[in-house]
Amino acid sequence: MKTMIVYQSMHGCTEKCAAKLQAVLPGGADVVNLKETKKADPQQYDAVIIGGSIHAGRIQGGIKRFCAAHRETLLEKKLGLFLCCMEEEQAQKQFDENFPEPLRKHAKAQGIFGGEFDFERMNFIARTIVKKVSGMTESVSKISEEAIRKFVEDLK
Ligand SMILES: Cc1cc2nc3c(=O)[nH]c(=O)nc-3n(C[C@H](O)[C@H](O)[C@H](O)COP(=O)(O)O)c2cc1C
Question: From the CB of 18, is ligand 1 less than 6 Å away?
């Protein structure tokens, strides 16, 4: 089983989750950062995992474009979709609004992995906004190992 994980990440949380998946998937996986390559081709893989994160309610444009460009191919693969975000109450809504319905219906695994606020990696504007909106003053990590474990189980 040849697996590809494609992701996009602003401050490293989705990247960390992609690496965690790669480490536990039987047979490993090729990990592709869509920010670094526009030529990610899912055709040669048996399974494809797509992961992105939410900023101001939206997933990265690169993830949207990848899903749209490879829709037919993705519908023929074993598919997993995961999201990183911090607003727990909005998480499912954000997942549903940001991954296309046909892909959600087809996916064997859907994961909401939680998120992180890494103030060290944010620029001044993002740091100021996030501190104000969240009320948090220190970096925090809320990645759910349980959600990742279940995702891998569901994908089997
Ligand atoms: C500027 C900014 C806006 C954000 N907006 C949202 C949001 O609308 N909803 C949400 O659930 N999380 C939001 N988050 C939290 C991110 O989804 C969370 O930090 C996630 O772990 C980011 O993953 P990444 O580092 O891989 O991009 C926001 C974070 C930042 C920095």
Answer: no
Q: How many domains does the chain have?
A: 1
Structural domain range at position 61? 3-116+143-155
Closest CA to 9 of 48, 43, 53: 53
Edge-to-edge strands, sheet with 3-7:
30-33, 3-7, 47-53, 78-84, 109-112
Q: Which of 54, 87, 88, 90 to mutate to test the pocket of ligand 1 (most atoms within 8 A of CB)?
A: 54
pLDDT digits 0-9 by tens, 6-61 = 999 999 999 999 999 999 998 889 999 999 997 899 999 999 999 999 999 999 99
pTM of the model: 0.97
Please report whether residue 147 resides in a domain.
yes
